[in-house]
Amino acid sequence: MKIAVPDLISNSYFPAVAAVELGFFRDEGLDMELVHYFPVNKCCELMRDGEFDLVAGSAHSALAAYPNWEGAKLLATLAQGMYWLLVVRADMECERGDIDAVKGLYIAAAPFVELGLKRMLAEAGLDLERDKIKVAPAPGEIKPGVSFGVAAANSLAKGDVDAFWANGMGAETAIRSGAGKVLVDIRRGDEPTKAFNYTCPALIGSDAFIVRDPDAAAAAVRAIVKTQKAIKEDLSLVTKVGEKLFPSDDAKMIADVVARDLPYYDASISEEFVLGMNAFMTDLGWLEGPVAYDKVVATQYADLWMD
Fold this sequence. Notes:
This protein has helices at about 15-20, 25, 40-50, 115-125, 150-160, 170-175, 205-210, 215-235, 235-245, 250-260, 270-285, 295; strands spanning about 1-5, 35, 55-60, 70-75, 85-90, 105-110, 135, 165, 180-185, 200-205. It has twelve helices and ten strands.
């Protein structure tokens, strides 16, 4: 079996990465191969085409390949809520939460990831064209094994971009280098708070996979839940995985970043989240309208979310 992640050197999908590297999938009887493939919408498209069995990616991205949630389900969350942060140049004279400060800036954001940023800016009353805000990928190609967030942080340090919208690893890299500072962190209460339910890191499976092998789908959910629990109990496991997969500087950093995510390690998927995510995607034209909870979520595995 294959599970795709759009960002490897990252806290975003770390429970899925760790489930492979620490043997939790194997313990559930699954021979799982981890594949890094960027960007996330392409991961979902390739899953639809049979290349991957599962995707660990942003929940809303399933709609890139499965319009109106026809053919895919969320199996579990890897962590709750919006997990990308808006980071700006450290030399900017602005306070935390001052979204108006992004007027005139070039903000780096990955494909499909940028949807959350654009909607968040609109919620704050900003208009990309009027306010001369450029939202686009960071310069250069994202190669396998390279983190978009870390690459964006490096682009910020070089002055190629003014800001970026990416994961906690990217934010931490920018902060530690002195190149950047956090402007907006939705998970930690910054406005607009409704953006918390735009998306979350999730385990996504196709309906075809779930029908073909429901026991394997259940095993995958159990593996994620057990991984989350193990990391909560022993943070050194994070460093162990980092030292195996990440460059040395990132390996030293990953445990600190994941530690901040632990309060959000909960595999459950609430109806409130699904309503918020679907409203977000409807507003952007990716969804025709409300979709029933059980059409989005593989509810048959709900009992497995709590270990």
